[in-house]
User: What shape does this take?
Amino acid sequence: MVAKGTAGTATADDWQAPVAAPDPAGLAARSALDRLPAGQRTVIVCRVLLDLSTAETAAVLNLAEGTVRSRLSRGLAELRVALEEKE
Assistant: This one.
């Protein structure tokens, strides 16, 4: 085993990923998403980010498909309003 900090030996702890400048649009979207009610946020994450179908989202969250569609619609509408206010 090589001790951390041994001269000439790099370890995984020594490596740092390159840091990109934060994307202002991405930060605004994340902030707006964080402010949504948990039910709407969870449905949006499942449907949009995880690309689950309405049926899959309903099964995973133990909701009716109509509830998934409703929460998705309302959540996306709130996101649109929040992001338009940022412009």
User: Anything to note?
Assistant: The helical segments are 24-35, 38-49, 54-61, 65-86. The domain at 23-86 is CATH 1.10.10.10 (Arc Repressor Mutant, subunit A). The chain is about 60% helix and 0% strand.
